[in-house]
Write a structure and sequence with these properties.
The complex is a heterodimer of chains A (513) and B (348). Chain A is of the alpha/beta class and 513 residues long. In chain A, 32% of the residues lie in helices and 26% in strands. Chain A is built from 17 helices and 22 strands. In chain A, strand 17 and strand 18 (373-374) form a beta hairpin. Chain A is globular and about 75 Å long. In chain B, 78% of the residues lie in helices and 0% in strands. In chain B, 51% of the residues are buried. Classes of the chains: A alpha/beta (513), B mainly alpha (348). The A-B interface holds A 16, 306, 308, 327-333, 338, 340, 345-352, 356, 360-361, 363-364, 369, 372-374, 398 and B 1, 3, 210-213, 215-216, 218-219, 222-223, 225-233.
């Protein structure tokens, strides 16, 4: 008989208007890494918060080592040996690693003074055993994000955790750090710990997990062993249909020039040139992808086109009409849609309902208002329609945008922007942080718009995305477009070199400066 | 959603109740009979038609200053300057009342409009400073309060009068006083201003909830960046919000100048209507209806307080303490919410 350390049986958790968890069962074997896979907003975090004692389930039971338990608060979870490594770290920045780890359960000497030396020795020991390489005396504010995450891991181990829950741990890490984290997880299970990994990244699951429980729209779909499955099967289990990883699109037929930028110069708030004489043309019916390392002027370029930042000199024309240094409203009305990079800062008013957000640029027009009086019936009708069409999962149009998951917020923005049918659609990091289902959907929408004869400017740091979706790739480096390549004639390696500023031409990728 | 709405209603009511309860305890401790004390308070506020009239009269400017602060607050601004806006509104109303000779249907509206414009102008300055230079409105409005106070005093002494402390009374053609209202309330000072205040509450509700102006103002208050992205003029909206808030507060000044007193006097300190308006807005959850109800509560407490020393021997200071306690409990509404949630859970 298999020994389970944690069993969550038929868990059901409801929130007003929505069933977040509906009859979900997860069984974690001792010494395994068990993935919890689901789309954004599928109910993974809710389920783990139930296990951690932050929520009480309406139905179902939790067993730890075969014994039924009642976890009513996180302290009980801690006592049962369950530790959570949160996605957003819970660390006190000016404190040292040791101070952070002992916080809340400080060891004391007989006199009542904190015994920081004992704690430090203890932490060093644990750190060495699992290969965490954490310096106990470093200040949190001085160490990297990856290190901070290890401090979180140490914190749970220090408190005697046998089961560690990782909530989307790789979202904040660099590829290098991700590899190191995988190694740490392997050494943890080797030492007898068990791990639940919450994620929507399929590659990670295939690489490090033993088994995987899939949740879809709050329902438990089932558990599979990873050696019996593959990325495609996992994806379709998660999304509920076949997922196409290779973006399907026909050849583009570029027509007249929609956007024309000549010698554009943009300064940032500190008066430093960030766009330095940039030239770019985008035609109707094509997707131009801008590849580049973050901070080479991409954000400033977009802000200049959309009127959010003033340009210093140059020319920006939309359909042969000057739009440089026009107000954002004029630019919007002249036919530009903008899916902003930072959806919380720019894309949505989070305290407005999702319905109110759907008319953010059109509220002053008929039929949404007349003589400055809003017509809520029309606004909500429109919102309902967009929510349907773009598969935005929300309890109602009245739900505050803040309450939606990232993927659904993004779908709402895309719905709003595409629906206005702009001649030029600017999509900045449109799929950042989203799961495969949402990514596929968004790519499909962008291509659909292209096929309708719209011009699309795609800015992304994901080379996969740039290569798969674009019809033409412009490489941006140091405020200029330094090269233009065809996606079918290039590869990630060549793009990587171009993005780093080396002047290679297609076909000569091994020639350096 | 519905739970939120329920809480918005329940929390102020419980706060008021707790404030009264705490007041009763303090009265007991200080050796007074709380039942007698509250009976006197009630009689002082609603005992007969005269006190009722006075309660309404006292509530009228509170409605307007409450609206002023609530309106600014809904759009992400903190209008501490209602105080100064009341004073300049009061001055402008009386000045127009005294300076112009015209039939009532011109004179009275003109004096009221002057008060609104004066308040608006006084709020425009912090608004434009915030919008263009990013100067925090709290600091500027506080300073504007002092400027209003001292400039007004100087104008009363040296311009409107010849070194007197009070102006002449305004003529009947600029007065809000109503013989009819006075006659049915045993000659209290209640005046037609209450209608203006209630109308202003409707206007606030309409602007905030039903117009594109309110949509923009709230949007800018919630998220400046997204508002800019959506093509709204952020600076314009900040100024507009302050101007509308200032108009409400200026009108509160007109209530005093054209309704209650018919004059303006040199003030040794702030009349406190603007500051009390902050409490009114808070208690009224920044909604138009809530502000009206909270203003009546404040008016009743302040009016009834007058009866407590004579009726029950309780000092008026105690009433101020009770009001302060109510505000304290509203401000700590988090605790009340938490307790309510607890009860809900256990009730399941």
């Amino acid at each position: 008989m298999v020994e389970y350390v944690i069993e969550m049986l038929n868990i059901r958790k409801e929130f007003p208007g929505i069933v977040a968890n509906d009859n979900i069962t997860v069984q974690l074997k001792k010494g395994e890494i068990h993935a919890l896979l689901g789309e954004n907003g599928a109910g993974k975090s809710t389920l783990m918060n139930v296990l951690f004692g932050l929520y009480q389930p309406e139905q179902g039971e939790i067993r730890v080592k075969g014994k039924k338990v009642n976890i009513t608060n996180p302290n009980i979870a801690n006592e049962l040996g369950i530790g959570m490594v949160h996605q957003h770290f819970m660390l006190v920045e000016p404190f040292t690693v040791t101070q952070n780890i002992v916080l809340g359960s400080e060891p004391t000497k007989k006199s009542g003074v904190i015994d920081i030396d004992r704690a430090r020795k203890n932490i060093k020991e644990i750190s060495d055993r699992y290969g965490l390489k954490v310096d106990p005396d470093a200040k949190i504010s001085d160490i990297s994000v990856g290190m901070q995450q290890r401090v979180e891991i140490l914190k749970t181990l220090y408190r005697g955790a046998e089961v560690l829950i990782f909530d989307e741990p790789t979202a904040v890490l660099t590829p290098q750090e991700i590899n190191e984290l995988m190694d740490i997880m392997r050494s943890l299970v080797k030492e007898g710990k068990s791990i639940i990994l919450i994620t929507h990244k399929l590659k990670e699951i295939m690489e490090v997990c033993d088994s995987c429980t899939v949740i879809r729209k709050g329902k438990g779909i089932g558990t599979v062993d990873t050696f019996n499955t593959n990325v495609n099967e996992l994806a379709s289990l998660m999304v509920g249909r076949e997922v196409n990883f290779n973006t399907v699109k026909t050849e583009s037929h570029p027509k007249e020039t929609v956007l024309k930028i000549e010698n554009l110069v943009v300064k940032d708030s500190r008066k430093v040139d960030l766009v330095k004489g940039l030239n770019l043309e985008i035609h109707a019916g094509e997707i131009v992808g801008i590849a580049g390392v973050d901070g080479n002027g991409q954000s400033e370029l977009i802000e200049a086109i959309t009127g959010l930042t003033k340009s210093v000199s140059g020319k920006i024309e939309l359909n042969n009409k000057n739009i440089m240094n026009k107000s954002p409203r004029k630019v919007t009305e002249s036919g530009i849609g903008h899916i902003p990079q930072d959806r919380h800062r720019f894309g949505l008013v989070l305290d407005y309902s999702i319905g109110e957000n759907m008319v953010l640029q059109t509220y002053y027009k008929k039929p949404y208002s007349k003589a400055k009086v809003l017509n809520y019936k029309e606004i909500l009708n429109k919102a309902e329609k967009l929510i349907q069409e773009y598969d935005v999962r929300t309890p109602s149009v009245h739900t505050p945008a803040r309450a939606l998951s990232g993927g659904n917020q993004q779908k709402a923005i895309i719905g709003r922007e595409v629906d206005r049918s702009p001649d030029l659609l600017i999509a900045a990091q449109p799929t950042r942080g989203l799961d495969v289902g949402a990514i596929e959907f968004i790519h499909k929408k962008l291509i659909e718009e292209r096929d309708k004869g719209k011009a699309i400017l795609l800015v992304s740091f994901e080379l996969d995305e740039i290569i798969n979706v674009s019809d033409r790739i412009a490489v941006m480096f140091d405020g200029k477009i330094v090269a233009e390549v065809k996606p079918e004639e290039t590869n990630e390696q060549e793009l990587g070199l171009l993005m780093a500023g080396s002047k290679v031409k297609a076909g000569e990728s091994n020639v350096t400066e | 959603m519905s739970q939120n709405k329920l809480f918005t209603v329940l929390v102020p009511i419980i706060s008021v109740f707790l404030g009264l309860l705490a007041g009763a305890i303090i009265m007991l401790v200080s050796g007074f009979n709380p039942i007698e004390g509250y009976t006197a308070l009630w009689n002082g506020a609603f005992g007969d038609s005269y006190t009722l009239g006075e309660t309404i009269r006292r509530s009228t400017p509170y409605i307007l200053t409450g609206l002023s602060i609530a309106f600014a607050f809904r759009t992400g601004l903190f209008n501490i300057g209602a105080e100064g806006q009341v004073i300049v509104g009061w001055l402008a109303a009386v000045w127009v009342g005294l300076a112009i000779d015209a039939p009532m249907y011109i004179h009275l509206p003109l004096a009221i409009i002057a008060a609104g414009i004066a308040g608006a102008l006084w709020a425009f300055i912090p608004g434009i400073l915030k919008a263009k230079l990013g100067v925090h409105e709290v600091i500027v409005t506080i300073m504007m309060n002092y400027i209003a106070l001292f400039v007004t005093n100087d104008i009363i002494r040296n311009v409107l009068t010849d070194r007197q402390t009070t102006t002449e009374a305004i003529p009947a053609s600029a007065s809000l006083a109503s013989d009819w209202l006075q006659s049915i309330t045993l000659y209290s000072r209640v005046h037609y201003g209450i209608l203006i205040a209630l109308f202003a509450a409707v206007i606030m509700w309409f602007i905030i909830q039903r117009t594109t102006i309110g949509y923009e103002l709230k949007s800018v208050g919630y998220n400046e960046h997204a508002s800019r992205y959506a093509g709204m003029n952020v600076s314009k909206n900040i100024v507009l919000s302050m101007v509308i808030a200032g108009t409400f507060a200026g009108l509160a000044g007109a209530m005093e100048g054209l309704g209650t007193y018919g004059t303006i006097s040199v003030m040794s300190g702030f009349p406190n209507m603007g500051f009390d308006g902050i409490a009114v807005a808070l208690l009224g959850a920044n909604t138009a209806l809530g502000v009206v109800l909270a203003a009546f509560l404040f008016g009743a407490l302040k009016e009834g307080a007058g009866e407590m020393p004579t009726g029950a021997g309780v000092p008026t200071e105690l009433v101020d303490i009770i009001i302060a306690l109510i505000i304290f409990f509203v401000a700590s509404s988090y605790i009340i919410r938490w307790i309510l949630l607890r009860f809900k859970k256990e009730g399941k």
